[in-house]
Amino acid sequence: MTGRPGDPVVPAPPVLTDAQRTANSGVPPQAMPVPDRGPPVKFDHTGELSGFVNHSQHRVMYKNKMYPTAMHLLEAMKFTEHPKLQERIRKCTDVGDMYPLSASFQDHVRPDWGQVFLRTMEDVLYIKFKQHPSLRTLLLRTGLADIVYADANDAYWGHGPSGDGANELGKALIRVRDRLRAEGER
């Protein structure tokens, strides 16, 4: 604002940092409130949330082919350069038989698998939850809570024997939930 000619020039008040405001007033600045995440949501192979495991009996359609489980699709994705191996995995009806079958093909795993498998797992889960509305609803109902795969035998995909495992499956589900929510899923 300009004053009249001859009025004294009054400088604008200085811009203070949070530390300066605290020092001047004795009251710390208010932090932005963090939404309550609530307790973690834990799941395993049993109960209402058992469909969250990647080998639950929820079929997944991918590139016009039906896979018996999301795990079948994930395992098939290891062999993108070998469609016949992918097809053998897809046609394996029992998830328990699929693991040794996939393991027998280890010499043919795509060279970048170590760099892409977590992102691929997330993409496969995303496909699964998009195709199964009841599972999608359960996932979105977890709100903002952390999601924990409560598997004491798996310290990578789950929380492991001491509860401090990597929980990569739970983290992937949180990312899928965030993607669904960003798309406006309810």
Automatic annotation (TrEMBL):
InterPro entries: NADAR (IPR012816), YbiA-like_sf (IPR037238). Gene3D superfamilies: YbiA-like. Pfam families: NADAR (PF08719). SUPFAM superfamilies: YbiA-like. Residues 19-40 are annotated as: Disordered. Residues 51-181 form the NADAR domain. This is NADAR domain-containing protein. It comes from Suillus fuscotomentosus.
